[in-house]
Specification:
Two copies of one chain form a homodimer.
Chain A (H helix, E strand, L loop, with lengths): L5 H15 L8 E7 L5 E7 L10 E6 L4 H6 L2 E8 L4 E12 L6 H12 L3 H6 L31 E15 L4 E9 L5 E8 L2
Antiparallel strand pairs in A: 1-2, 1-4, 3-6, 4-5, 5-6, 6-7, 7-8
Chain lengths: 200, 200
């Protein structure tokens, strides 16, 4: 069935699951799958950084030295977010906008800068560390010596991912219910959501 | 560096993480990514069903009406297994052997049968339920009426997935260490593992 409130409805389910798990530090951790340039799947844990501008796009921070090559090869991703305590799973698929420091859109650069300053100092430090997956050298130093100045603007490898959602598959294993929310566009290009109840 | 004990070593890390999280019901839940036939990534939560015959292959049960089409299209998968309490992540990639009731290998059929009888009654019931993702009909009945006989042999849609591991990426966010274990074959076709310490 088509429904103007379907978008509000899936987002309400996500927010409600976050709320009822807010006492658990790890409730903001989710797994994001992408497709590597060799065509094989890739999967990793990331942190949910909120909905962009209180809308319906999901924000994730990452290091451009990690899975960005995957996303350049295939811009689609699927999040799997399982709330273990309440037995609820969200599988959220969509297209990813990769926003690094070279982006030509001033608005997107501003979003990226805002995400940078929302990071903890510990998170910021990670982006100054030696490149992930390169052979570890016990003597190596961080690529930049962190000073207060280092953090006054976002570092080059800091990357904001914005997931433009195409489908939300909500599974509740307690009530044994499954809802599929699907995004579509109407004649004027506006996104609208429809929802179907399917077998779990 | 090449090392004969590298396989033992990554498996020991997995077993140790399982052990230290055994008080948490959800510690056996992991996310498995595959590539759908449209080339997009797919991601879902499944349950770790142990190592096959105490070896190095990972077993997962699934319903052939779910992501098996993905695996027929692209037989590779990547598991992401995050142990939230101890801050340890395993990303485990490899090729998946899909064993359903039509498999021609008697040994594999035996493995599948063994996995079936290791299921709880509740798990078994799921395989008798109406097909996942089909439109929910409030009046529908299970496709088979479960009787004791129903469970005396595995049902048709029950599927054993066996992941033949190619790489294990172990990340410890407490000690800030990352190890990459890679499988290779020697001249006689035996699998051997090498391990490298890389930047986290």
């Amino acid at each position: 069935m088509g429904s103007p409130s379907a978008a509000a409805s899936w987002k309400q389910l996500v927010l409600s699951s976050i709320q009822s798990n807010s006492h658990l530090n790890h409730s903001s951790f989710l797994q994001i799958a992408s497709v590597a340039s060799n065509g094989r799947p890739s999967n990793r844990t990331v942190v949910f950084r909120g909905f962009q501008d209180d809308g319906h796009k999901i924000q994730i921070n990452t290091d451009s030295r990690t899975h960005i090559d995957d996303l350049k090869h295939c811009p689609f991703a699927e999040i799997c977010w399982y709330f273990t305590n309440i037995w609820e799973q969200f599988r959220i698929g969509g297209q990813v906008d990769v926003i690094d420091g070279t982006n030509s859109d001033p608005f997107k650069l501003q979003q990226r800068e805002r995400s940078w300053f929302a990071c903890s100092l510990k998170s910021m430090m990670q982006y100054l560390a030696p490149a992930p997956w390169l052979l570890f050298a016990s003597e190596q130093q961080p690529t930049e010596t962190p000073t207060l100045d280092s953090f006054m603007s976002s570092v080059g490898v800091f990357c904001l991912l914005v997931l433009n959602l195409g489908q939300v598959d909500y599974l509740n294993l307690k009530s044994n219910e499954r809802l599929i929310f699907t995004a579509g566009q109407d004649g004027s290009g506006e996104t609208h959501w429809s929802v179907e109840k399917v077998n779990p």
